[in-house]
Specification:
2 copies of one chain form a homodimer. The first copy, chain A, is 48% helix and 11% strand. In chain A, helix 7 packs parallel to helix 11 and helix 12 crosses helix 13. The longest helix of chain A has 23 residues. The radius of gyration of chain A is 20 Å and the shape is globular. At the A-B interface, strand 1, strand 2, helix 8 and helix 9 of A face strand 1, strand 2, helix 8 and helix 9 of B.
């Protein structure tokens, strides 16, 4: 096992009806800015529940944080917070809203001239942030229990990640019934996003960390079990929603990645596909991952065999055959969730590869993966295999 | 899944050489009281490492916290802290030292006339505590990453548990090499203690919580894998020590118990055995658990079958046969760790049963277990089956 630090101070309030707990979770004297995406939080009644729980506290709402949240929109929220003197932020939504609120919380008091520098430094220059909580409505990214975010600069066409010890939510309310109104496509995205988060911290090389391995395998097995049920159910089933929510949170709260190597190349390549072509984050991961695992089958050999055996029950055949089968089962699982796993499925051809590789180079993404061996040339091979 | 809160703010600094990090982890201006058990922390050089890392900070040492730490000893430390004006505590040792430091940290500023009231109220009357960190030298109890402790009142012959949101360690340093000097018996105790902690939160009844189930199973599988290796190794093996340490921490930091029923009857009965007869904590658990699982085989049926299949690979036979086999494999595992699983192995006979049952009644332990069905009469049957 590798040396590690694990420190996750976010308070999780999990279960049906927990939005009412905002009455205790938000400081009594806070002046609260609620931040949301589109109209759905209002339409579904979630915002009314939130406002009721806030009681007498002063509050206002900032509406309009988009999927793949932008620097530009975030900075509009920063202006509203400064002008309105808000001292507590409440993200109501999915990973995009929560990521944006983390950035906004850090940008409000940022001392540099341009808060884009936070992204350029990956958050290492964050020295403080407004306190914030979240009410999760879309299980997928794990942002509700970690300190990281990804922000897109529309004008620059750049999508960059950041994190800081100052950007953990103080609390996150996880009420599985808040997912009942999600379209099927977003549920499928959530399953695949959580799956790939887990794989990024698991399918690397062995360091003799059996607890972490089995936790990761347990999350993957759970997602494989509940994914198809979530899509097929004519009405939402509480436990399946609850288990998706908790699996997605556990997939990216630092726990399964503690003490083990981490990859993240699939995410870095995927971010460029989203920034350039607007493909849903989870779908970019489903495109890149199978091709990446195949390209990296030799350095990832031992863990691919373990993954095949423990997660998919693949115990026969040569090692090569078993690895091929494990990768194909992964691809089939994504496809069974209604998510296409090739660039051609999104109308992209060979010419798209050049621009993605050029952007990776422009953003310094030239030594990706747990071995730092995924150079632009390797990324190119991965993308070509994903055509 | 049941509704739950999960909030664990302890910072874990894990790995070889991490004691040096005390230089950053302990506040620079702190006046530190280091608390230890016997002479081993001094003899092994761990205390010298700790003192070196504390650098210029004022510090003193309180020596003599015993296994099954006592109220009486703890109160002597409270006096030293008040008189010396210490404002940060550092536990160096295993679960006993850490449990004691939690109680001491809460007792220093306790407003009532007698801090024993903290135990009588299970910690619900704690309103604040001195900040404290830990340096773990004996992986077993999980106390390094939770807010609970157990304190024995020697004069009263009572062993009671407490917990509070104020009694989480600020940090815990987990350096697996600090276990290298442990006697075999303590390693075996650690494996069994962590195993039973996991079982108490897993072998109850199903609530459709597959992530929690698989995390628990992953910890059990890991302990089964490394336990015999730990005992057989002629020299300490870093990874096995590291994995025991992390498994024991994860077994009782609140995570696998979040959203699921919990039993803890084995612990409550075991505590009386320790208080009356001085049997090591883990050994009392090894005595009680197999008998309890057999007594409760009907209400625990579904989870016992799942446990048998996933943890021990038992897939054939009638349900009753499979459950019997799962319980026997559990008993055999404890015995293979050199830990006897019957009262007779510790020189106790039928007359001991009466006094244990009487103490359970005296301490209000009359409706134990996840179903609150383990009355004194049921505890008696369990103990008689453990003779």
């Amino acid at each position: 096992m590798l040396n590690f630090d694990f420190h996750n101070p976010t308070h999780i309030a999990f279960g049906q009806g927990r939005i009412a707990d905002l009455a205790k979770l938000v400081p009594a004297t806070a002046k609260v800015l609620i931040l949301v995406g589109g109209a759905s939080a209002e339409k579904t009644g979630t915002l009314a529940e939130v406002r009721a729980a806030l009681g007498d506290r002063q509050h206002a709402t900032f509406n309009g944080i988009e999927p793949n949240p932008s620097f530009e929109t975030s900075m509009r929220a920063v202006v509203q917070i400064r002008e309105g003197g808000f001292d507590f932020l409440l993200a109501v939504g999915g990973g995009s809203v929560i990521d944006a609120v983390k950035f906004i919380a850090a940008a409000v008091n940022f001392e540099g001239s341009d808060p884009w520098a936070i992204l350029e430094k990956g958050g290492r220059n964050i020295t403080g942030a407004l306190p914030f909580g979240t009410v999760l409505t879309l299980p997928a990214t794990g942002s509700e229990m970690n300190n990281g975010g990804v922000i897109t600069h529309r004008a620059k066409g750049a999508k960059l990640a950041f994190g800081s010890k100052h950007t953990y939510p103080v609390f996150s309310v996880l009420d599985p019934t808040k997912t009942y109104t999600l379209p099927t496509q977003q549920l499928a995205n959530g399953v695949v996003d959580a799956f790939v988060h887990t794989v990024e911290q698991y399918l690397t090389y062995p360091v003799n960390a059996p607890v972490q391995d089995r936790f990761a395998e347990g999350i993957l097995q759970t997602l494989i079990e509940i994914g198809p049920r979530l899509l097929a159910a004519p009405e939402p089933v509480y436990d399946d929603r609850a288990n998706l929510m908790w699996a997605a949170t556990m997939a990216l709260n630092g726990l399964i990645g503690a003490g083990v190597p981490q990859d993240w190349a699939t995410h870095m390549i995927g971010h460029e596909l989203t920034a350039l072509h607007g493909i849903d984050h989870a779908r970019t991961l489903a495109i890149v991952l199978p091709a990446l695992l195949n390209e990296r089958r030799v350095p990832k050999r031992d863990k691919l065999l373990q993954y095949g055996e423990r997660v998919w029950g693949i115990t026969t055949g040569t090692h090569d055959e078993r690895i091929t089968a494990a990768i194909e089962r992964t691809r089939d699982f994504f496809e069974s969730m209604g998510i296409r796993t090739r660039l051609s499925g999104y109308g992209l051809g060979a010419d798209a590869v050049d621009t993605v590789v050029a952007q990776l180079e422009a953003h310094g993404m030239v030594k990706l993966g747990e071995q730092r061996e995924i150079t632009p040339a390797v990324s190119r091979r991965i993308l070509e295999a994903a055509l």
